[in-house]
Amino acid sequence: MPPPADVVKVAIEWPGAFPKLMEIDQKKPLSAIIKEVCDGWSLTNHEYYALQHADSSNFYITEKNRNEIKNGTILRLTTSPAQTALQLHERIQSSSMDAKLEALKDLASYSRDITFAQEFINLDGISLLTQMVESGTERYQKLQKIMKPCFGDMLSFTLTAFVELMDHGIVSWDTFSVAFIKKIASYVSKFPSDIAILQRSLAILESMVLNSHDLYQKVAQEITIGQLIPHLQGSDQEIQTYTIAVINALFLKAPDERRQHVIRAQRAINNEMAHQLYVLQVLTFNLLEDRMMTKMDPQDQAQRDIIFELRRIAFDAESEPNNSSGNVEKRKSMYTRDYKKLGFINHVNPAMDFTQTPPGMLALDNMLYFAKHQQDAYIRIVLENSSREDKHECPFGRSSIELTKMLCDILKVGELPSETCNDFHPMFFTHDRSFEEFFCICIQLLNKTWKEMRATSEDFNKVMQVVKEQIMRALTTKPSSLDQFKSKLQNLSYAEILKLRQSERMSQEDFQSRPILELKEKIQPEILELIKQQRLNRLVEGTCFRKLNSRRRQDKFWYCRLSPNHKVLHYGDLEESPQGEVPHDSLQDKLPVADIKAVVTGKDCPHMKEKGALKQNKEVLELAFSILYDSNGQLNFIAPDKHEYCVWTDGLNALLGKDMMSELTRNDLDTLLSMEIKLRLLDLENIQIPDAPPPIPKEPSNYDFVYDCN
């Protein structure tokens, strides 16, 4: 006969004794069960004992969670939460460093349990920990050189215990002093070498910002985005994640006007800030890489449940039929029909659609987000397409998978940030789920474009190309919000894309006729001279270059400029990035242009051959150039961006009497030639230009009409 449902069989351990096998009657009070266990081992004062799980969690058994005990569970008899809290409260105040360290280690472990946490907090334990942090910093700084591991671990365990205790939500975050906030902020800005301390400090700052408006203001005064950014450039991914979380928390809690000033007001953002925002954007999107490269496991029920949820939301399935053999087949047939309506390629087992990486499980995540957060739009798209003819339906499943792959490609998910790029998109900083929201906007655009093109299943790739063009054209305008991005897309309908393509094509064709080509040849030299003068003028103004090494960006600068008479290059180191031009007399070194032997670029540069890590970085390689002079002299550059690279290589080649071959010169030449030709042809508007010159007329029969001036 099976045991009653209220009775569970467990094993109970006690240090130094053989485990006991016993049956626990869940109807009996927990205190009575503990007394029975204590009596079995002849232990008195049973109220000082408790039961806890013997696994790694060590969670206490309480009246609230006792129903979670299953048959075969291993429990441990231990001191009660109140006793343990009291003992640890005393031990962490010990004068012995070793005893204190061991106590804080135990406290960090026990604090994960809410029952213990409640007892420790009742003893004013949070205040004790904050006092230890506030008063212990000076001592930590003095003794860290002598006993760095001991004090580092001590502070790490203290902060870990604090984080675990606060995560239970028992104590309000508003109770902490400015002194405590200053200490935590100092660990982020001054002690970055200790990973554990840095990680806990970042977690505390994030919680402070998110849970209290007053603390947000205090934290914002103590820590800046600039102090957080260096932690993004390390190799520890966990630290990068915590840092991004703090930055995002600061952005989310910032008043609208302040957030707009930091992120959206692009004129106020200097190159360095733009670069750091670009790095933050890349690293944030790179957090999606794991999901993007994770294949769906068709046997994983939790993953399959997501697909079931997509079906349920779309079709609001009524109660399932009974599990009779006939109804099983009926249900399978219904599922297959619904999966076809959802636009999956594999109607029988749609999980197989997500086995390609990229986009892997990221596509399914996006689909579920869209279905839950924009349910009306999701249902409309699915039902709208399921009511069309098969060949005219826009398959939601297939479209979502291909669109996610496209968006990952556009945003370069998984690629490392460039050392010099500053191309960030302000709109991605206005929402904590910006990629998912980006997808929601684009999947609706795809469905709209499909209808405008009256596409069939054979046109799928054509539609995706048009959608990509729409997205890219909208992104180039740098919209400051997702709503603005959506508005830009509204103006880029399929008809508008066709107009833009036609206009660009006609513009190219107009300039290919023979008379226009002859006119181009005639005016090209003066346009090239104009470009040359512009390049030399820019060299006279000068540029600030950043000194880079193979590991990370360094805040060291140097400046180089050409003398007004174009005969000498002046250069020298700077303490900080300059505002405006740097005068010649403040630059210590100079190089006569006459001494320059050659200008080399890319992998031919000496500094690219010396530094292997830089050589492997394609972005840096494309911005590198060097001036070679004398026998072994060299002046090595890494331009701040592609534009400056083109300006300097063109200008130096012009000084040496060589052709300007950069992409910028080609673009400028095309633009200026086009403008000049259009200006010269204004009077010929709406007059067709012949492809060939008019024929030379026959000679006249006599020349009597000629008047001789002599």
Automatic annotation (TrEMBL):
<comment type="function">
    <text>Involved in cytoskeletal rearrangements required for phagocytosis of apoptotic cells and cell motility. Acts in association with DOCK1 and CRK. Was initially proposed to be required in complex with DOCK1 to activate Rac Rho small GTPases. May enhance the guanine nucleotide exchange factor (GEF) activity of DOCK1.</text>
</comment>
<keyword id="KW-0729">SH3-binding</keyword>
<dbReference type="InterPro" id="IPR001849">
    <property type="entry name" value="PH_domain"/>
</dbReference>
<keyword id="KW-0963">Cytoplasm</keyword>
<dbReference type="GO" id="GO:0048870">
    <property type="term" value="P:cell motility"/>
</dbReference>
<dbReference type="GO" id="GO:0005737">
    <property type="term" value="C:cytoplasm"/>
</dbReference>
<dbReference type="GO" id="GO:0017124">
    <property type="term" value="F:SH3 domain binding"/>
</dbReference>
<dbReference type="Pfam" id="PF16457">
    <property type="entry name" value="PH_12"/>
</dbReference>
<protein>
    <submittedName>
        <fullName>Engulfment and cell motility 1</fullName>
    </submittedName>
</protein>
<keyword id="KW-0472">Membrane</keyword>
<keyword id="KW-0597">Phosphoprotein</keyword>
<dbReference type="InterPro" id="IPR011989">
    <property type="entry name" value="ARM-like"/>
</dbReference>
<keyword id="KW-0053">Apoptosis</keyword>
<dbReference type="InterPro" id="IPR016024">
    <property type="entry name" value="ARM-type_fold"/>
</dbReference>
<dbReference type="Pfam" id="PF11841">
    <property type="entry name" value="ELMO_ARM"/>
</dbReference>
<feature type="domain" description="ELMO">
    <location>
        <begin position="302"/>
        <end position="475"/>
    </location>
</feature>
<keyword id="KW-0581">Phagocytosis</keyword>
<dbReference type="InterPro" id="IPR024574">
    <property type="entry name" value="ELMO_ARM"/>
</dbReference>
<dbReference type="Pfam" id="PF04727">
    <property type="entry name" value="ELMO_CED12"/>
</dbReference>
<dbReference type="GO" id="GO:0007015">
    <property type="term" value="P:actin filament organization"/>
</dbReference>
<dbReference type="GO" id="GO:0006909">
    <property type="term" value="P:phagocytosis"/>
</dbReference>
<dbReference type="InterPro" id="IPR011993">
    <property type="entry name" value="PH-like_dom_sf"/>
</dbReference>
<dbReference type="GO" id="GO:0032045">
    <property type="term" value="C:guanyl-nucleotide exchange factor complex"/>
</dbReference>
<dbReference type="GO" id="GO:0005886">
    <property type="term" value="C:plasma membrane"/>
</dbReference>
<dbReference type="GO" id="GO:0006915">
    <property type="term" value="P:apoptotic process"/>
</dbReference>
<dbReference type="InterPro" id="IPR050868">
    <property type="entry name" value="ELMO_domain-containing"/>
</dbReference>
<dbReference type="InterPro" id="IPR006816">
    <property type="entry name" value="ELMO_dom"/>
</dbReference>
